[in-house]
Description:
Order of helices and strands: EEEHEEHEHHHEHEEEHHHH
Distance between the termini: 55 Å
Largest sheet: 6 strands, mixed
CATH architecture: 3-Layer(aba) Sandwich
Number of strands: 10
Low-confidence stretches: none
Helix content: 25-40%
CATH superfamily: P-loop containing nucleotide triphosphate hydrolases
Number of domains: 1
Radius of gyration: 20 Å
Bound molecules: adenosine-5'-diphosphate, magnesium ion
Amino acid sequence: MSGRAENMIQLIDVSKEYKMADSCRVALQHINLTISEGEYIGILGLNQSGKSTLARLLNGLLKPTTGQVLINGMATDSPQEIRQIRQLLGMVFQNPDNQLICPVVEEEIAFGPENLGLPPEEVNKRVDWALELVGMQEMRYHAPHLLSGGQKQKVALASVLAMQPRYLVLDEPTSMLDPLSRREILEHLCRINQENHITIILISHHPEDLLDAKRLILLHEGSIYMQGTPKEVFKDMEKLKAIGLKRPGLYQLIQQVEEEGYRIDDNIKTIPQLVEMICRI
Ligand SMILES: Nc1ncnc2c1ncn2[C@@H]1O[C@H](COP(=O)(O)OP(=O)(O)O)[C@@H](O)[C@H]1O
Ligand SMILES: [Mg+2]
C-alpha cells in the first residue's frame, strides 16, 4: 500500500467508540497524527479526554473503530503484524505493581528478552544495559515487591527497555510517585531519548510532567485541541482556561517576563533556570 511510511507512527483519521449494552461512548474522534522515530512527544489532557485510549490504540490492545494506526508501516489491526508491533513499541503504565511478576529484579528484566528466544549472553547484556539506563544496578538481586514505588516504576521501565523498543509509550507513569521519584523518571526519559534515540510518547494530565517534550499534543473530549512546543501551547492562556486546564507556574512567569520585552530561551525548563537567565539579562 502506498503512503505507509517506515520509521514513524501514523494515525490516519482514527476514531474509537466503546460500545456498551445500551449506549456508545466516543473516546476519540478523527485523530490525525504523525510521530517520527526519535521524537519526544507529550500527550496532555484532563481525565477522560482519551489519552489512555490513544495509548492502547498505539500498541494494538485496542483497534480503531474507523481509520488506521500504522507503526512503521504495519497496521495494528493486522493479526500477522501485531507481534512485531509489540516488539517495536513498549508500554509502561501508571501502576508498576500490575506490570511486575517475577520474584527477582533481574528475572523481571530478563523475562521479555528470554521470550524473544535470545541467547543467554544477549539476555544478560540487555539486563545490564537496561538496569544501567534507569540507575538500578544495585537492585539487581532484590525482590521487586519490596522496592519503593519509584524503584518499582524504574524496574518496570527497565523491563520494557530490555526489549529494545523503538517507541516507548508511558501512560501516566509518574502519577503514583513522590516528587523526587517523579523527577528521576523524567530525567531518565530525557536521557533515553537523547542518548539512545528511543522515541518517547509521554502521557500525563500534569502539565509539569511534559516540559521536556519537544512537541505537545493537547487532547480534549477525544479530539486534538492544540499542539505545538510546550511554550506555544502554554502561552495561550485563554484557550487553556476554556477547557479548565491550568498551565505550569513556569509559563506564567515566562509570559510576565516576555511582556516586559525580554525574550526567554525555549530551553528554559525550570524556575531556577529562568531566575538564572533573568539575572544574566
Ligand atoms: N473500557 C471502556 N468502556 C467504555 N468507555 C470507556 C472505556 N475506557 C474508556 N472509556 C471512556 O472513553 C473516554 C476516554 O477515556 P480514557 O481514554 O480512559 O481517557 P483518559 O486516559 O484521558 O482519562 C471516557 O469518556 C471514558 O469514560
Ligand atoms: Mg488514562
